[in-house]
Design goal:
Helix content is about 35%, strand content about 20%. The chain has 15 helices and 19 strands. The strands form 5 sheets. Strands 6, 10, 11, 12, 13, 14, 15, 16 and 17 form a 9-stranded mixed β-sheet that branches. Strands 3-18-19 form a 3-stranded antiparallel β-sheet. Pfam families: DDE_Tnp_1_4.
Length: about 450
């Protein structure tokens, strides 16, 4: 136990340099807590999420409501805290207490054991996540309605899409979530070369609409048809399934899907490659070169009909690079080159959204044993992503951080340190004087105040 109160360092230009732990309540996320809380009060996203969990605890014995626990957990994910153990320290932070909606943000009026700790510790939050087990006798007090949570994510995401959008595009993609334990649903995936889950994501721009945890032996496109609703579909070759395309065709939706190459498809591009190679040999062209070909194609067994395909014949320094997409876009709306380069290749931005979800918001921390509780963790991460997307749409318009990544937003906008002073009439956040983004913070505040609550 260290009882030293003052720490003396080497002098600086004749002046003493000393330090002591008497600066009052300080938070490294002063600005982030304020903005996240304001956003939630304006949108009510977490409030509605709390309505998807049934709380069977004795009200007289509850210190932390389900909504407060969700605010605490999802808010901390947004601030960059990935593990439940982090909350054993964060529970002392009055800024996080304010973000969670606690009346006593300093924890002054709690029991002697928990005095000074406004928030729940990791054990309580663990019970929240394990509540997904439902019938397990240890975790039966808070029961999530998984269907409602999944539907709420779609509803809230759709509400976040700009109202004047002339065309809505859904990007579907699955990614690997490496596993390092004996989790339920653990399976070795030959392509990725390790044990993993295979979560399926759907984004509309940067807005998450679907976060479905799947084991790695499941088809990557599983669950896609159920998620489609009067939208345009764009996905990679893992989604060129007859059921998906047939559903879109029957419901008047457009799709553009990557198609895995094979010998029959490559034969369609052979004449184009011959022309390109001839022109290269004659010095008429320089690498890289490409041509686009339109034709109809049907698999030998799995497709129910012939469908339009666009093939890209491309020659790079490393050799030929054939690529294909299958689509039901009508020719008068897109020519082959525009369809492939301007529309389909734009789905590469989906990789950035998944990267944000997995790395910036820790969706890959699926380390609990049960798959159901790992799905709940995935949803918490997705709702954190949704709220930050709402912040960009509502409050960052017109600022230099309007198109910033989640990681950049966190560093530039959420990590403005503050001293928190609490009195009877006021909770005052004294933000760092040297913050270089004070103008952005001021504009974000102005935009949030203009948004109806």
């Amino acid at each position: 136990m260290c009882n030293q109160e003052v720490f003396e360092f080497q002098d600086h230009n004749g002046r003493k340099v000393v330090a002591s732990f008497d600066g009052g309540y300080l938070s490294s996320e002063g600005s982030g807590a304020l903005l996240f809380r304001e956003l939630e009060l304006r949108t009510g996203t977490i409030h509605r999420l709390a309505g998807c969990l049934r709380d069977g605890r004795n009200p007289e014995l509850i210190e932390h409501s389900v909504e407060a626990l969700l605010r605490q957990r999802i808010g901390a994910l947004s601030m960059g805290y990935e593990d439940l153990n982090d909350h054993d320290s964060l529970r002392y932070d009055p800024a996080h207490g304010l973000m969670a909606g606690k009346a006593d943000i300093e924890g002054k009026h709690r029991s002697e054991k928990n005095r000074g700790k406004a928030l729940a510790g990791h054990s309580t939050l663990k019970r929240l996540e394990q509540s997904a087990l439902g019938g397990d006798g240890r975790y039966k007090k808070i029961i999530p309605d998984t269907e409602k949570i999944e539907q709420l994510l779609i509803e809230e995401g759709v509400k976040a899409i700009p109202r004047k959008s002339g065309r809505i595009i859904l990007d579907f993609d699955a990614t690997d979530d490496p596993l390092h334990g004996a989790q339920e649903g653990r399976f070795f995936h030959g392509y990725y070369g390790h044990y993993c889950y295979l979560p399926l994501y759907c984004f509309c721009g940067n807005i998450p609409l679907l976060a479905l945890l799947q084991d790695a032996k499941t088809d990557a496109s599983a669950g896609t048809v159920a998620a489609l609703e009067k939208i345009v579909l764009r996905g990679d070759s893992g989604f060129a399934r007859d059921a998906i395309m047939d559903w879109c065709e029957r419901n008047g939706l457009f799709y553009c899907l990557g198609l895995k190459r094979n010998t029959r498809l490559q034969a369609e591009l052979a004449p184009s490659f011959e022309v390109l190679q001839s022109d290269l040999d004659a010095g008429l062209l320089q690498l890289p070169v490409r041509r686009f070909v339109e034709f109809e194609y049907r698999t030998l067994n799995s497709w129910s009909r012939r469908r339009p395909v666009v093939g890209k014949a491309e020659v790079l320094a490393k050799g030929e690079n054939p690529r294909f997409v299958v689509t039901n876009f009508e020719a008068e709306h897109f020519d082959a080159r525009a369809l492939y380069e301007d529309f389909y290749c734009a789905r590469g931005d989906m990789e950035n959204r998944i990267k944000e979800q997995q790395q910036d918001l820790f969706a890959d921390r699926t380390s609990t044993h049960a798959m159901a509780s790992n799905q709940l963790r995935l949803w918490f991460s997705a709702f954190a992503h949704l709220m930050l997307s709402q912040l960009q749409a509502i409050a960052l318009v017109g600022t230099r951080l309007e198109k910033a990544t989640i990681g950049t937003l966190r560093l530039r906008l959420f990590k403005i340190a503050a001293r928190v002073k609490v009195s009877v009439r006021r909770i005052r956040f004294e933000l760092a004087v040297g913050c270089p983004d004070q103008d952005v913070f001021a504009q974000v505040f102005k935009n949030l105040q203009a948004w109806p609550s």
